[in-house]
């Protein structure tokens, strides 16, 4: 069964791993590629995978790219129009959304409207617009297939099971590089410290989100939308070895889990070929080498980012957008060395405190809430 896929964010951590999978599965066609401004890498990708369309967000970079690939029959676009055209591209059957941040909302909605299945890595989209995306997907009969490793594990643990029999979702969390640290120590943590994830190699923004536990908070909200569960029925379980990627508990007490060595290629590939499991090279889990697996509760006092996420999720409406936008901006400031580690959560909290919730926001209202959070941070910094 051949596949025709388009990738938004092809030059990033998820995008490049997805292309490695395409390379190993020659029956997959890449119809379109998009990225932010990385001309050099996307040019290489275009030469290797020969998409019909490519886009760079940044207009100047798109112009450079158009010149660089002038010898090929590829159409080069830029900006949101470019992303939207790629999302709707006739020849595509699945769109991998692997851009970082809320920029993914409009292309994801456009692709669903056009009947494309979504391989969803871009969690910020679902966190802020899940109430628009999930009903639209249902109405259009398209699949939203999770790429995030925890959600893929949950999805895999639900195959062949009765959805009504689900009691609880257990979402695992490595605890990040600062697990066990006290507030006094956390105050002094630098960007380099935050970028040292114990088990996973990922893009910068998500790696910082793992160190604050904001990533886990976003993932709880993502799970709520993907699997239609209440916040009371989702529990975070810190599991430092990152071998159990998440679990589902059923009403007879059975717990189903998906285990494996930490490697994003498995969840990307599972989403790409669902419901088929294709072979994949690589190291296998050796239980004797592993020896032990450990578990502990998450410490929301020292890592308030998780507690704030849960509060935003339970409040609902436009609050998850404010949480997410404030975090995006605060993390960017932290990466630039402009604020300290603990200030990330402080800024999120200030934005949430100032925000007046809009129930059931439409796209405009979501973007307005995003802009409001950016303004508050601008004022505070
Ligand atoms: P990266 O930072 O590695 O890559 C981001 C990609 O998005 C790059 O291709 C970048 O292009 C592109 N991009 C950035 N801004 C724009 C824009 N305005 N328009 C078009 N493209 C843009 O991120 P990750 O791959 O780590 O993460 C992608 C998403 O997947 C995130 O939502 C993350 O939370 C999620 N995710 C990632 C995991 C991982 O292992 N990395 C695991 C689970 C989820 P350029 O290179 O040109 O800047
Ligand atoms: Mg994850």
Q: Which key terms come to mind for this protein?
A:
381 residues, Rossmann fold, 11 strands, binds magnesium ion, alpha/beta, Rna Polymerase Sigma Factor, Chain: A, 17 helices, 4-stranded mixed sheet
Categorize the overall geometry. Answer: globular
CATH superfamily of the largest domain: RNA polymerase sigma factor, region 2, helix turn helix motif
Please give the order of strands in the largest beta sheet: 4-3-2-1-5-6-7
Structural class category: alpha/beta
Contiguous runs where pLDDT drops below 50 for at least 5 residues: none
Question: How many domains make up the coordinates?
Answer: 2
Helix content: 40-55%
Number of helices: 17
Q: What is the third-level CATH name, the topology of the largest domain?
A: Rna Polymerase Sigma Factor, Chain: A
N-to-C SSE series?
A: EHEHEHEHEHEHEHEHHHHEEEHHHHHH
Main sheet record: 7 strands, parallel
Number of strands: 11
**End-to-end gap:** 53 Å
Question: Any ligands, ions or cofactors bound here, and which?
Answer: NADPH dihydro-nicotinamide-adenine-dinucleotide phosphate, magnesium ion
Rounded average pLDDT: 97
Describe this structure in words.
The strands form 2 sheets. The chain has a 7-stranded parallel sheet, with helices on both faces. Strands 9-8-10-11 form a 4-stranded mixed sheet, with helices on one face. It has 2 domains: 144 residues, Rossmann fold (3-Layer(aba) Sandwich); 225 residues, RNA polymerase sigma factor, region 2, helix turn helix motif (Rna Polymerase Sigma Factor, Chain: A), CATH 1.10.1740. The mean pLDDT is 97. β1, α1 and β2 form a beta-alpha-beta unit. Helices cover 48% and strands 15% of the residues. It contains 17 helices and 11 strands. The protein is globular, with a radius of gyration of 20 Å. The protein has 381 residues and is of the alpha/beta class.
């Amino acid at each position: 069964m051949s596949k025709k896929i388009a990738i938004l964010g092809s030059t990033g951590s998820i995008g490049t791993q997805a292309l490695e999978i395409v390379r190993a599965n020659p029956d997959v066609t890449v119809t379109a590629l998009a990225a932010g401004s990385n001309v050099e890498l996307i040019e290489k990708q275009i030469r290797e995978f020969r998409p019909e369309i490519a886009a760079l967000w940044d207009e100047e970079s798109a112009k450079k790219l158009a010149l660089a690939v002038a010898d090929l029959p590829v159409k080069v676009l830029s900006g949101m129009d470019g992303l939207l055209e790629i999302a709707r591209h006739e020849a595509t059957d699945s769109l991998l959304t692997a851009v970082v941040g809320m920029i993914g909302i409009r292309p994801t909605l456009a692709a669903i409207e056009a009947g494309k299945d979504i391989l969803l890595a871009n969690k910020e989209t679902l966190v802020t617009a899940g109430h628009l995306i999930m009903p639209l997907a249902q109405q259009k009969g398209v699949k939203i297939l999770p790429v995030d490793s925890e959600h893929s594990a949950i999805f895999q643990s639900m195959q062949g099971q009765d959805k009504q029999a689900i009691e609880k979702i257990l979402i695992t969390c490595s605890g990040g590089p600062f697990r066990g640290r006290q507030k006094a120590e956390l105050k002094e943590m630098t960007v380099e410290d935050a970028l040292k994830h114990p088990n996973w190699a990922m893009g910068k923004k998500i790696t910082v989100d793992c160190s604050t536990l904001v990533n886990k908070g976003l993932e709880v909200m993502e799970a709520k939308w993907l699997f239609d569960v209440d916040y009371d029925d989702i529990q975070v379980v810190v599991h430092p070895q990152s071998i159990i990627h998440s679990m589902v508990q059923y009403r007879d007490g059975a717990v189903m889990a998906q285990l494996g060595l930490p490697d994003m290629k498995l969840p990307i590939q599972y989403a790409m070929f669902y419901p088929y499991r294709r072979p994949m090279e690589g190291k296998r889990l050796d239980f004797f080498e592993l020896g032990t697996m450990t578990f502990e509760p998450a410490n929301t006092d020292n890592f308030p980012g998780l507690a704030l996420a849960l509060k935003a999720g339970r409040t609902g409406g436009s609050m998850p957008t404010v949480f997410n936008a404030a975090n995006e901006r605060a993390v960017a400031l932290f990466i630039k060395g402009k604020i300290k580690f603990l200030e990330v959560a402080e800024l999120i909290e200030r934005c949430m405190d100032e925000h007046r919730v809009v129930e059931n926001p439409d796209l405009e209202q979501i973007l307005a809430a995003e802009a409001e959070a950016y303004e508050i941070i601008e004022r505070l910094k």
